[in-house]
Amino acid sequence: MRRFFVAGNWKMNTLSRSAAELAGAVARAVPAALPTVQVAVCPPFPSLTAVASAVAGSGAELGAQNASPEKPGAFTGEVAVEMLLDVGCRWVILGHSERRLILGETDDSICRKVRAAVSQQLGVILCVGETLSQRQSGQTEAVLDGQMQGSLAEVDERAFARIVIAYEPVWAIGTGVTATTEQAESAHSHLRNWLAARYNPRIAAETRILYGGSVKPQNARSLLEQPDVDGALVGGASLKTDDFLPIIRAAENIHKG
Ligand code: PGA
User: Fold this and answer.
1) Ligand 1 geometric centre to CA of 214 (Å)
2) pLDDT-based confidence at 1, cuts 50/70/90?
3) Is 96 a catalytic residue?
4) Whose CA is nearest to atom 1 of ligand 1?
5) Which residues contact 148 (CB under 8 A, 6 or more apart)?
6) d(C-alpha 55, C-alpha 50), whole Å
7) Residue with CA at minimum distance from ligand 1 atom 9
8) Ligand 1: distance of its center to the CA of 10 in Å?
9) 237 Cα nearest atom in ligand 1
10) What ligand 1 atom has the least distance to the C-alpha of 173?
11) Are 87 and 56 in contact (CB under 8 A)?
């Protein structure tokens, strides 16, 4: 059985104090690792150490939102995988659509980051997802295939011990529009079939595929109940404990056969 994974992507929000408060509330709600739900919070870089202290000893894990593919050195403004591990990160979000579309990241650059992270045992939440115009022109599956192929080039099956996929339709991110359960399940099952074809049935069966895009307490349960939805990457709703904690509880209360 795949363990649920609920991760909060705080994006470019919180200051060190609000970050520590928010993380502290999550840590109090998840004092020890939950048997059926893995929980992570991903604050901006400057708050990583404050959040690391706030979640220390709890069941909440720490993640970052980007990493350099390079070894430490002359790369002004970049943050190396070693540095993320040093402050206690277990995860890094890579390939988020905001980085692809606003900051110009390509599958190729994302792939280099994926390889750098997994080679040092840093877990990766790899985001893929289509835009509205791509969906409307019937290209969703081709776009997902291209992103998976490109972002995972030369990534071998052993790396999947540390890779989680997040399906995040761009049109659902921060818009309040959520994919229907059918749209989410269809994309997730497509991604799982892609994993089976590119790797093997075991990788497909074991890899967690999270849904992201306007996940809220009101829609979490129905999304998480879908057979191929193994968790949520939560943006806006992860900034409020009143929204984030019920999403974790929703996952805890689902028992898939
Ligand atoms: P959202 O963001 O929940 O605010 O839509 C999700 C994400 O971008 O990871």
Assistant:
1) 6
2) confident
3) yes
4) 235
5) 128, 165, 191, 194, 195, 198
6) 9
7) 235
8) 9
9) 3
10) 5
11) no
> Which residue intervals of 87-211 are DSSP H helices?
97-101, 107-119, 132-136, 140-151, 181-198, 201-206
> Is the Cβ atom of 234 under 6 angstroms away from ligand 1?
yes
Q: Give Dmax over CA atoms of the chain in angstroms.
A: 51
Q: What is the DSSP letter of 95?
A: S
Q: Which of 96, 98, 130, 188 is catalytic?
A: 96
Q: Indicate whether residue 125 lines ligand 1 (CB < 6 A).
A: no
Q: Does residue 213 have its Cβ closer than 6 Å to ligand 1?
A: yes
Q: Which residue has the tokens 């049935």?
A: 201
Which positions ≥6 away from 131 have C-beta within 8 Å? 101, 143, 170, 171
pTM confidence score: 0.98
Q: How many CB atoms lie within 10 A of CB 90?
A: 16
d(CA 59, CA 154): 33
Residue 135 vs residues 71, 141, 179: alpha-carbon distances, Å:
37, 9, 11
What's the distance, Cα to Cα, between the start and end of the chain in Å?
9
- Give per-residue pLDDT as tens, 176-219: 899 999 999 999 999 999 999 999 999 999 999 999 999 999 99
| Ligand 1 center to 218 CA (angstroms) | 15
